Amino acid sequence: GGVPTPPGTAALRPGGRLDTAPRAPRTWRSATYTTSTGEIVRVEVSDTYAPEAVSGQAWAEFFGGLVHGGELSGVTVRIATPPEVAAVCGDDALGCYSGGLLVMPGEQLGGVEPQEIARHEYGHHVAASRINPPWSASAYGPKRWSSAMGICARTKEGTAFPDDYTHYELSPGEAFAEAYRVLNDRRAGILGLTWSIVDDSFIPRDDTLRAVEQDVTAPWVEATSSVVRGRL
Fold first, then answer.
1. For residue 186, how many C-alpha atoms fall within 13 Å in the half-sphere facing its CB?
2. Backbone angles phi, psi at 67, to 5 degrees
3. What is the DSSP string of 122-189?
4. Full-model pTM
5. What confidence tens digit (pLDDT) does each residue in 108-123 have?
6. In 3D, which of 153, 148, 157, 135 has the Cα closest to residue 176?
7. I need a surface site. Which of 33, 152, 204, 206 has the fewest CB within 10 A?
């Protein structure tokens, strides 16, 4: 799902808002954790949670276990209580992402497990870390997935609306984040598909999930050309 404002911010449900009104200051237990694979993940946990209730190290390991590339070192994961998530992401949002900051709850919210919210929001971080000229990967999805899903053609047809959250269920950015979630769900042994966030036309197939994985593990860098010579 997504918070409609500002651009680049996304959550797991539509209709959210970014609240910038002054509030009582929140404090965070912030640390940079090294995972068992030697990777670095920055995690901030709300002081509202007792240290034994939410482990920054455990969440760093979780994110290190997702399908990922070098973008992992560029994310800051902020784990907040549901009221704190609502204050930052909007009343209708389960989590949000913007500019390298991923905000999520440390507990089940709206009947959704925090791991599912984390997978979806990290999909937005993946997209934000990929290039897709002349378009934004956050809006259209990264190159391979976007091509496999025919996003440009769908945009012309009016069946996909990049960066337009008035058509939330037809947002390619949200659809890519959901496809990324499904890819990681399968790797975690979660085979069922709960699809209530975006339109059914975006449900990933095996080939589009392979495209997602390629976008993550072998990011598109630039257009290449080849020359073929022959004699007739």
1. 14
2. -65, 120
3. HHHHHHHTS-BTTB-HHHH--HHHHHHTTHHHHHHHTS--TT-GGGGGG-HHHHHHHHHHHHHHHHTT
4. 0.87
5. 998 999 999 999 999 9
6. 148
7. 206
